[in-house]
Amino acid sequence: MTKPPALELRQLSKTFGSHPAVQNVDLSLPEGEVLALLGPSGCGKTTILRLIAGFERPDSGQVRIGGQLAAGGLSFTPPEGRGVGMVFQDYALFPHLTIGDNVTFGLKGLSRKQRQEKLGFILRLVGLEGRAADYPHQLSGGERQRVALARALVPEPRLLLLDEPLSSLDADLRMKMREDLRVLLKVGKLTAIFVTHDQEEALYLGDRLAVMNQGRVEQVGKPEDIFHQPATRFVAEFMGNSDFLPGRRTPHGVETELGLIAQAVDAPSGADVQLVLRADDVRFEPQAGSRSIVLARHFRGAMNMYRLRLPSGRLLHAYAPHELRYPPGTPVRIWIESQHPLAWFVSTDEHR
């Protein structure tokens, strides 16, 4: 008998007033998978988590957890009956309780010895062994987030929901925490949904990504597929600061103002298309007399990011090693050198 998905959303919708926050969302999550749910602010990510957790009732559609109907039609299981743990952006710790009491607050029906055993195990797991008697104000931001994670994990939930849990941390701590979180999720074989608006964070943490826009899921897939083969123009723009180079489909590739690019395009011959380019696809070198020029250079540590202007006025971005410094106004030759097939879209009047 086939095991049901850990989570299944079927045509899930939720409207607040006249604002459709979630529109006909279908998602399926197998056991042990980490799904990164990402998109711009206000796209419906947190509302989906609240619908899964039971903090909101859907207007239509279903939430199924472990094959059991948790919400849909007249059925509605309250949050405490769903076996779901949730980690919030603002930690939501009780300031007057110790770390140990915060973590074990929701545990019911256990003896004191059992509670202490579970507490000791979970604090070791999140790297806070020996801190049970401390209070939240005695901890750093990263440590408080670990307490919130421990509290969500100690009841052994079947599904873990994380709502931008790293967004309030500084850059260095955020990178360390996301590495630790990835290890914790995979070693524990946990099933989780991680909400973020940070593309790099999503690519690092997610076994799969679901990209949302205006309440809808635009694309679901592996990180490499989402990044290199976006299904919509929105996904292409959101995932990695894409540039778009117009061209015309020919029997041998796409003819552009940079010349012929040998790119397979499944469109009628002569169709106007837009190739999706990122900074690592674009190469350039100084060339006297060229009508393409360097507009600006932005230092990125190991790399420089260059903004280039084509004769048409269109802008492209390109990486170059940090030791190569070309001043604005330098004429350059530009070409495309990609190690993967380029994504493309048929041009519309709006984007030509």
Question: Could you list some keywords that capture this structure?
Answer:
single chain, 352 residues, alpha+beta, Rossmann fold, OB fold (Dihydrolipoamide Acetyltransferase, E2P), 2 domains, 6-stranded mixed sheet, 5-stranded antiparallel sheet, 8 helices, globular
Strand and helix layout:
Elements: E1 7-16, E2 19-29, E3 34-38, H1 45-53, E4 60-65, E5 68-72, E6 75-76, E7 84-87, H2 99-103, H3 112-125, H4 141-153, E8 159-163, H5 171-187, E9 192-196, H6 199-205, E10 208-213, E11 216-221, H7 223-228, H8 233-238, E12 243-250, E13 253-256, E14 259-261, E15 272-277, E16 282-286, E17 293-299, E18 303-309, E19 315-321, E20 332-336, E21 344-346
Parallel strand pairs: 3-9, 3-10, 7-8, 8-9
Antiparallel strand pairs: 1-2, 1-4, 4-5, 5-6, 10-11, 12-13, 12-15, 13-14, 15-21, 16-20, 17-18, 18-19
- What is the fold-level CATH name, i.e. the topology of the largest domain? Rossmann fold
State the low-pLDDT regions, or none. none
How does the helix and strand content classify structurally? alpha+beta
CATH architecture of the largest domain: 3-Layer(aba) Sandwich
Distance between the termini: 52 Å
For the record, the CATH class of the largest domain is: Alpha Beta
The main sheet orders its strands as: 7-8-9-3-10-11
Largest sheet: 6 strands, mixed
Order of helices and strands: EEEHEEEEHHHEHEHEEHHEEEEEEEEEE
Mean pLDDT: 91
Describe, in short, the structure shown:
With 352 residues, the protein is α+β, with helices and mostly antiparallel strands. It has helices at residues 45-53, 99-103, 112-125, 141-153, 171-187, 199-205, 223-228, 233-238, and strands at residues 7-16, 19-29, 34-38, 60-65, 68-72, 75-76, 84-87, 159-163, 192-196, 208-213, 216-221, 243-250, 253-256, 259-261, 272-277, 282-286, 293-299, 303-309, 315-321, 332-336, 344-346.
